[in-house]
Amino acid sequence: MRRLRLLAAAVVVVLAAVALDGALTGSAADLDRGGGRSAAPPPGLPPHTAAIVADAETGEVLYADQPHRGVLIASTAKLMTALIALERLPLDAVVTAPGYVGDGSESTMGLGNGERIAVADLLRGLLMASGNDAAVALAHAVAGSQPAFVALMNERARELGMHDTSYGNPIGLDHGTRSSAADLVTVTRALRRHGFFRATVAAPRATLESGAWRRTLHNTNRLLGGSLAVDGVKTGHTEAAGYVLVGSATRGRRAVVSVVLGARSEADRDEATIRLLRYGLKRLR
């Protein structure tokens, strides 16, 4: 009888451990819609609004803190702009850029009004230099206007199950655009199916051959390369959104995607991203 009681107790312990392990991970969509945290946090993670790291292939969440909290996402909204352009435009198509006038402080790739440039180079300007003018040019090339393109962005978000997301423009300006760490993982995983996207966001710089003049672009993501093999994805910043970074890193045939939203500084954002990616790769092994 005593042996039976001991055996029963052991079974209870094992089942509890299995249940706990299952609660710590799961897909981004399965996490509590109200936020919450899964797994023990990576040690020394700086303060942030929301964070996540997930398996790039399966979407399994390896760590998350407030993954479904809807917040401003700055230029990481351009990831959806890139996805729609990749799905609807040939890379070698040449389009005419409309005039774009920002407030003087916005990031651009320096497009001239009426300049003819290849879609591939517009995507490089969008993803590497975070060009607002590139975003507007792609929106017009796909849909004829920014409002029509924004409707496509929101439709695609619904198709992907991005329930925390709404877009107000193809650029990432604060008005009308919000998303969550979990949803940014979703759109990034969809983008990673495109080889052109993976190569573009992993490149520290690129020289463009199309357009009115020869441009060399530098990637705004300063974490690329290094011992951790960071290979993406997209930075963002506005005064209201704080510092944002969707990151990725690959080791062997496995990759992870991270998101940090609302960091107080670029240094905090980058440190948090490195810790999340390192933690995620370790969990994969």
TrEMBL record:
Top-rank EC class of the record's enzyme: hydrolase
Signal peptide interval: 1-19
Peptidase S11 D-alanyl-D-alanine carboxypeptidase A N-terminal domain span: 50-264
Alphabetical UniProt keywords: Carboxypeptidase, Cell shape, Cell wall biogenesis/degradation, Hydrolase, Peptidoglycan synthesis, Protease, Signal
Keyword ATP-binding: no
Enzyme Commission no: 3.4.16.4
Coiled coil: none
Active site per the UniProt annotation: S75 (acyl-ester intermediate), K78 (proton acceptor), S130
GO molecular function, one term: serine-type D-Ala-D-Ala carboxypeptidase activity
Annotated protein name in UniProt: D-alanyl-D-alanine carboxypeptidase (Penicillin-binding protein 5/6)
Natural source organism: Conexibacter arvalis
